[in-house]
Structures are given as C-alpha cells and as structure tokens.
Amino acid sequence: MVYCYAIGCNHRTGGAYSCSLFRFPIDPSERKKWADRCKRADREVNSHDRICSCHFVDGLKYNGPTIFVYSKNVYRFPDVPTKK
C-alpha cells in the first residue's frame, strides 16, 4: 500500500478518498522543490514516495504541490518553558 508523503496526510492507494498519487519528478532541482514544500525532516524522498493530488491546485501534477496544512497540532512542537 502506498501512502502520501506529505506530513499529516493519510491518503493512500485503494482508500476512501478519490485522489491520485503522483511520483516525485526525476529532475533533481524539481524533486528538491517538491520535497522542500512537504517539510519532512524525518526522512529523505525515495523512488517509492508519492504525493496525492489533493496537494495540487485543481489536482493537476503540472501545477506542482502547493496545498499543505501546517499546524502546531500536527507537528507537536514542545512548548518552550518560560521563567516566572
């Protein structure tokens, strides 16, 4: 089963969502742009990774991935303690 590479997205092949999964571009500079937009610090993109069409304007691959939800709740950043 293939899952979307984007953080916080649980779309997968054969799932309840009707979206396509796109491969990352072969061109290294385009591939890096896509990976940077995903903001995944936990691992690098490999040849098996995909991004679902829900992250593309109008669901079209040539638009490039631009639709991501970045939330403190998704990343679970620790609170910085303050002195009282």
UniProtKB/TrEMBL annotation:
One of its GO terms (molecular function) is DNA binding. Residues 1-84 form the THAP-type domain. Pfam families: THAP. Keywords: DNA-binding, Metal-binding, Zinc, Zinc-finger. The keyword DNA-binding applies. The keyword Zinc-finger applies. Signal peptide: none annotated. This is THAP-type domain-containing protein.
